[in-house]
Amino acid sequence: MNKTIIINISGVIFHIEEDAYEMLKNYLNDIKKHFASFQDNLEIVSDIENRIAELFSELLLEENKQVIIMADVAVVTAKMGKAEDFGNDSEEETTQNQPTSTRKLYRDLDDRVIGGVCAGIGHYFGIEARWIRLAFFLLFIFYGFGLLTYALLWIVMPKAMSRTEKMEMKGEKINLQSFQKNVEDELRDLTATLSKAHENSKPGLSRLGAFVRDVVTKLLTFIGKTGLLILKIFGFFVIGLVALTLILTFITLLVFLGYIGNTDVSMVFPLNALAENLRPAIYISAFLVVLIPLIGIILLAFRLLFKRNKIAKSVGFSLFMIWIIALAVGIFSLVKNATDFKEEASFSETIAIKDNPAHVYYLKSGGERTVTENIIGGSSERIITITGHDRNFDTPNNVDIDLNLIKDGTPSLVKTYSARGKNFDAALKNANQIEYYYQQKDSLLTFDYQSELKKCSLWRNQEVKMKLNIPIGSILFIEEKLARHFFQNQMYDCLDYESDKEHLIRIVATKDGFLCDKTKKAIERQKEYNTENNVTDSVSTTFIF
Predict the structure, then answer these.
(1) Mind listing the pLDDT tens digit for each residue in 431-443?
(2) What residue ranges do the domains of the chain occupy?
(3) Which of 197, 302, 314, 318 shows the greatest Cβ crowding within 10 Å of its Cβ?
(4) Residues 148-166, buried b or exposed e (16+ Cβ, 10 A)?
(5) End-to-end CA distance of the chain
(6) 388-421 confidence digits (pLDDT tens)
(7) Which class for 52: exposed (0-12), middle (13-18), buried (19 or more C-beta within 10 A)?
(8) What is the pTM of this model?
């Protein structure tokens, strides 16, 4: 069993085996010797150690382990390169031939005019900074949003402060050769800057330009800090909103499962379309499908606000797999529930309508019903009025009435009940769960707009279709709101949509069909049509359907 040592590299604690530690120690000593002659050797070695710490952290995270071994040190040193692998004579040639790494977006403060945004974008896309600056200037002049875009990028893009960040910005491979080349480039740039320093000390445009740059820099710095504060406030608001949504989602799940509340929400559409044995699986699956993305939003917000490292891959993968499984279970359960709508069945019943000598009938909507009930334990009766406007208000109620002309005989009402089920018998059973209320009192026929389902019945696309058989010579007076609801397509020209007053529509059953009086609006439409199409026929004031 190898001895383990705890070390600190750039403020990061690592556990490393003793032999691996000796190998890493020798490597760092070689680096310090190699860069000992450089003026800022301490900063160079510090940047190299930071890079080594990053590589070790990535390696431990990828392999999901805690201790660094010799193989890990060998991998990291191979990526960084060794000091003895290059010398002063061949170092330029070596650095020119090495491949570039993935570029990262930073603000370049060394080549800035204001905030280094354009220079950073230029490095990222491999374009000279002057062309990026020209593009922003044109956007500001011609479109007016160049300054806003620049300010937003100023807020979002981090500054390239360390040598490693500057090398990443330029896409340079981060190893010892690149560090040495980067240092030499900085020395050359410093020499060039010092040679031109006397120009900046002279009065004129240079000093004016430096002043303008300082003012704009301070202004954008203030805007950037304010923008970050606003973004953080917005981030906390998003976290609070998502957390509240999580709590409400969990409470909703408990309500649906029946652990909270006395109301049976499972009888509310569309929940009453779900089979009882499938509801728990569907509810829990839907909860997880919503829950996991909300957790992801919260984690992302925390990461952006507090600059936390990303979560472990194992945790992210586990959450993703749970989401996939929940989605699959939910879809499977819904598909299985859909098999209850496979077949359709129906049955009919015929109700005789009491005739009267005048053959006149009044049709109105059933807003309320009066029924007679026997008092329990006694012989007397009491009358109860039931209002039915709020019955199953959210469940689809497909009710239809059709007027049918018959030559002779007595009037009658044929009610057909239909529903769907996994087989014919189940569909017929579901059709028997329909309750529809129709009443006749003397010549008054009352129809409900909606049908009902018996208690604890599932919705299986139940429908009620009625055929009202009316003999020739009969007269109907139909309440206008009932006509609009059931007969709008047939008697459109007989309905006055602009009138606020409710009135009865007179319908006469003739041998040619049902006849009604046209409204003034319908007569005007007919006149306009005849005029536009040069029709000379007289305008009829009645309509047959």
Answers:
(1) 998 888 888 888 8
(2) 1-86, 235-339, 343-471, 491-545
(3) 302
(4) eebbebbeebebbeebbbb
(5) 98
(6) 444 444 567 688 899 999 888 889 999 999 999 9
(7) buried
(8) 0.52
